[in-house]
Design the sequence.
């Protein structure tokens, strides 16, 4: 039995979402983390093998200070279910690039949590699982808003406000996105802490920028509801300019955003924590190939096309 969890992409509202403004995000179902459960001899206990990361992790129910996210995820799931560790090996693999704004940590934790649940033949609803994965995100990412784990666990495009149940995104027509990787890793924890520092230094200026992002996201939600790709595109680019003002862009991100827009994308922005990682461009279907080629020439190391709306209840 294989469990999986998708990557996520943030369409709009990253960073401001940490301060209580809305964000819009969706799963990227083509890129997933997977976990599988294998039997182990009686008395062997539970072990997680993260072979991509060269890690073999024993899971003990009573161990304090577990310093690995996957072992801690398994421990929290077992405690929530009030069961002992099964005799099993859970193998986890992921196709999601790490430290690139696509929620790889939340996806790997979610795949492992679901594998543990299977291994003990139990069930946990998505709300309870989301709480567990959020706890893990908090331990490893400082002050996350909860948007990443929410999209990864529920696997649906959402309009998200911190501390509130996610609202399913109403999508009025097909929207095509190209998501491109700068190839430069960047830790969300670092950029979130840097934005916090900037906010503490200049609360008024940064507060205004965050509020601008919030207003952009509200207007973008209407544009998505109306299937208005042109309006959405310019809101995405405006959002990128606000993120640049928060100092979370990078030369590579600027190159890719400019390349997409110069080649006819309706809008483009960095996606996720920034300073590297991924960017996203909204494109008309007839420019998908040209924009992808332009991104590749501008240095993108990996490019995927995804769609929201129309025939897709979420992206393929
Ligand atoms: C990271 O995917 C999104 C950020 O807004 C951080 C968060 O919401 O926790 C940068």
Sequence:
């Amino acid at each position: 039995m294989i469990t999986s969890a998708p990557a996520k992409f943030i369409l709009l509202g990253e960073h401001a979402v940490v301060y209580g403004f809305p964000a819009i995000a969706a799963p990227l179902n083509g890129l997933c983390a997977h976990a599988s459960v294998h039997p182990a001899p009686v008395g062997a206990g539970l072990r997680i093998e993260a072979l991509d990361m060269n890690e073999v992790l024993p899971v003990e129910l009573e161990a304090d200070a577990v310093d690995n996210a996957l072992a801690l995820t398994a421990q929290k799931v077992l405690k929530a279910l009030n069961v002992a560790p099964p005799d099993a090996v859970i193998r986890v693999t992921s196709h999601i690039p790490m430290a690139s704004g696509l929620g790889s940590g939340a996806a790997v934790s979610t795949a492992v949590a679901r594998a543990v649940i299977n291994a003990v033949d139990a069930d946990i609803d998505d709300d309870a699982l989301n709480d567990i994965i959020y706890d893990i995100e908090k331990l490893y990412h400082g002050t996350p808003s909860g948007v990443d784990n929410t999209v990864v666990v529920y696997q649906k495009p959402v309009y998200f406000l911190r501390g509130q149940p996610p609202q399913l995104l109403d999508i009025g027509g097909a929207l095509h996105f190209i998501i491109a990787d700068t190839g430069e890793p960047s830790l969300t924890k670092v950029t979130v802490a840097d934005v916090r520092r900037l906010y503490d230094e200049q609360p008024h200026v940064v507060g205004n920028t965050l509020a601008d992002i919030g207003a952009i996201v509200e207007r973008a939600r209407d544009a998505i509801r109306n299937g208005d790709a042109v309006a959405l595109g310019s809101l995405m680019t405006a959002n990128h300019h606000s993120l640049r003002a928060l100092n979370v862009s990078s030369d590579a991100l600027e190159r890719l955003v400019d390349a997409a827009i110069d080649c006819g994308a309706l809008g483009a922005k960095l996606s996720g924590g920034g300073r590297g990682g991924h960017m996203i461009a909204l494109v008309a279907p007839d420019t998908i190939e040209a924009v992808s080629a332009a991104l590749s020439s501008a240095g993108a190391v990996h490019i995927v096309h995804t769609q929201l709306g129309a025939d897709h209840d979420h992206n393929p």
